[in-house]
User: What shape does this take?
Amino acid sequence: MEQIITTINRRSFLKTSALAGGGLMLSFSWLAGCKPKEAELLGAPDEWFDLNSYIKIGNNGLVTLMSPNPEFGSGVKTSMPMILADELDVDWKNVIVEQANFLPARFDRQFTGGSQGIRQGWKPLRTAGATVRQLLVNAAAKQWNVPAKEITTEAGVIYHKSTEKKAGYGEMASLAVGMPIPSEVITKDVKDFKIIGTSRKNVDGEKIVTGKPLFCIDYKEEGMLIAMIVHPPFGMKIKSLDDSSVRSMPGIKDVFVIKPLEEEYERTGFDTSSFVELGVIVGNSTWDVMNAKKALKAEWELTPEYTMTMQLWGRGKTPVTVPEGLESTEGHKAQMEKSSKAKGEILRRDGNPEAAFKTAAKILERTYTCPYLAHNPMEPATCFANVKEDHAELYAPIQIPEFISNTLVARLGIPKDKINIKIARMGGGFGLRSYGHHLVEAAVISQTIKAPVKLVYTREDDMTYGIYRPTYTATYKAALDKDNNLIAFHVKGGGIPEHPIHENRFPAGAIDNYLAEGWSIPSNITVGAFRAPRSNFNAAAEQSFLDELAELAGKDPIDFRLQLLERAKNNPVGKYNDYDPDRYAGVLKLVREKSKWNQPSANVSRGVSAYFCHNTYVAEVVDLTLQGNIPVIENVIAAVDCGIVVNPDGAINMGEGGIIDGIGNALYGELTFKDGVPDKNNFHQYKMIRQKETPRAVEVHFVKNEEDPTGLGEPLFPPVFAAVANALYKATGKRFYDQPFAKQIEKIPSII
Amino acid sequence: MAYFKLNVNGKQQTVDVDPATPVLWVLRDHLNLVGTKFGCGIAQCGACTIHLEGKATRSCILPVSSVENKEIVTIEGLSENGDHPVQKAWLEHDVAQCGYCQAGQIMTASALLMSNTKPTDEEIENAMNGNICRCATYLRIKAAVKTAANS
Assistant: This one.
């Protein structure tokens, strides 16, 4: 048991008039949909009581839990309420889950990204649940005139055993509302969890399989118009829009140019707006606007170099210069090769790497690259906005409403508490929906036309708008002494427009002489967070390099890593090593056991990889075969340490998805450019992994412990790139340094 | 603009639209059936899959003028109570992550099982290959199709 001081989420108990009687929820009744079948057993209550921001209890015992974080498929709308429900001590079948609106005054952190939902929600959600449980207990104690500490609860029922009194939560809810909030509450022991650690199905599952309107793109209201954008290539702006032929097209209301952000606006890292101006077409129906978009003639001109002031994390107010020019992949490659040869910014230095390399018996140096990637969530960017003189309503797929709400305040000139952002279930996000440009655009369009509007991107708009995974490269160099000990390690990484290096991650800390450098090249092609940012390249490069290094040292790749981790544990180099060597070693040992590493099947080629990012440790083994020049992934075995697993089957689903997504991007993912234009704009050109390329089986195993939980949306994704590369080496005898791999396998003549 | 008589989920409906309008947008914008999703607009992702005369068909490139009096079934009409064997199997395997593509996946899977009640793994992979799931829930999709086939 743990005593928790409730002030850590006291704001969740603040009462606002808007919430009385659940009015806010009902004001958007279109979203309410149908409730889960099981809950219908109890029927609708006559009255709801708001116990805190997260929890409403009906007089019949039905419980509504508000899920604070935006849902983009990682399962937080199920798993976060599970945490609340367990501490509240209610029966899951009597729970309805609803998506909370963006309400910063009521919720601590409505943020989906960085695999942090469960990790950062763990304590606040447990406290909120336990506090409401205590309020109900205190209400019963008062009502029954018995000491609160003699009262127990189970599955939504309150008991006082010695007097044989019992009452449902619904019966005590009205009394509990007025009780003083206890200054401390007790949360459960891990062994007493009844919901956490058991598999619960997606709370929106039935709505999804029956096609209910869950997504922003499905939203509609009376008088709502449809808007679409046209944008120039990167590095260009609108010279003119010839709208003469378009205005008279059926259903078209207006054509104009908007400036999503004002020049003087001080941007944050999430105010990424790829183009200075956008052309906008507004009309009655999607098809009308799509036709006009095709017919609209636009002329572009070069955007001169410009400088923005940005507020960047850890760097404060920073001027960022966007260069002029039409960029191409060919030019990027030449620039990156040149920068790779120059010195970078020194990020970390231990010992004397230069001297150690001079004494080496063997040196291995390899360079790795990865291309830009588009996120390609299945739902293209979309947002509903209805902006009035003094208030605004938005409904949007957005991972981090907080960041863009500040931008909206500045851009619309409307105070924050008058901008109501409702959070839609996202049709995928993968980092892209951290950036709220579509909200700003929809709001500016609505403000311009003075009407409710739904902005809809076409697939082509979504794929060519920017905010890509950057292109990166890194050169790794390592020295072995005559006994094959790793005595020096040097990584120099760079990219456009940022470098990927995490200087304090493994193998830093395990090597006496270590050097990490980074460099970057500015660009007008916008980039952003993509599932496990930077890690998705680092893991691929570093874990491929360690595989080759282990081979050079004549060591088994798992043993080689375990020996380095042993060193990092017993005699770490440096103070800032960003990992726990024991937990890192734990997943390697588990994957060794589960994959039967020492008795591999004779027919497959296998590779291993391990990585720690987003607070979770993962090791993966890939078994593959080649059918001609086509890799067939037979099996993937993953070992994961994310502490307590809140929703095991949901966690496995997330793991399977991360692994298969990683295999797809490792083999096929690539976006290149010519003269500022992406060379792919839809799925006929951009190859996504599909059913036929899916591994025959994926196993996800969890290390069992009682550590506080960490996230799973990202950590299983990065290591699989290298596990694939290392298995491909076994199959082909060739190392794979440049992503994507599939087109290189096709070029190997000897396999055919 | 022209009037078209449509048979959607067993109901006769009349719409007044441009004859070239894809069925996807007639369903979504004019008939308020938004379960059928827009993904690519060029029949490459499968999110817009409906049943046309019992066959899985991409509605995003299907002009409304070509479907008059033909039987259209959308995800909303697959079953009355969400209890089609494929829908039930999808819930049993808890397939969905973001959920956006799943209506299209379910419509493709249910059409497959109408023409082939016991598909092999290879037949399932071939039939489902046109439907992208960006969350990559492919293993569960395949398992759910098998469960539905056995039910």
